[in-house]
Design goal:
A hairpin with a 2-residue loop joins strand 1 and strand 2. It is built from 3 helices and 3 strands. It is 23% helix and 16% strand. It has a 3-stranded antiparallel beta sheet with strand order 1-2-3. The N and C termini lie far apart (36 Å).
Length: 101
């Protein structure tokens, strides 16, 4: 019996998903998520940018920040997940196909 895989790998960066004008808005949304979930840690929020380490999810995006990137090494990796509903109005029209409501 033969099996076939429908898996495909695509490589994206934030410019594939968001216009240049939307990038600062997305960055602020990421900062707010990190602040909401990490109130006890002392993080360098001002150094947060739209990282190239992110994962597309059917209903959102998770941005990953490596240890020492915005916190101390002991904090480990820090992530922030944005829901599709929070950023769908900022997506480029051709990027909408990668998400589901």
């Amino acid at each position: 019996m033969e099996t076939h895989s429908d898996f495909q790998t695509h490589f994206f960066n934030s410019k594939d998903l968001f216009s240049e004008e939307s990038q600062p808005i997305i960055c602020e949304m990421i900062k707010q998520k990190i602040i909401e979930q990490d109130k006890k840690r002392s993080l360098n929020i001002e150094s947060v940018n739209i990282t190239t380490n992110f994962m597309l999810l059917p209903k959102g995006l998770t941005f990953y920040f490596n240890a020492n990137e915005i916190g101390c090494y002991a904090d480990g990796r820090i992530d922030a997940t944005l829901k599709y509903s929070e950023f769908k109005h900022l997506l480029k029209s051709e990027a909408i196909q990668y998400f589901h409501e």
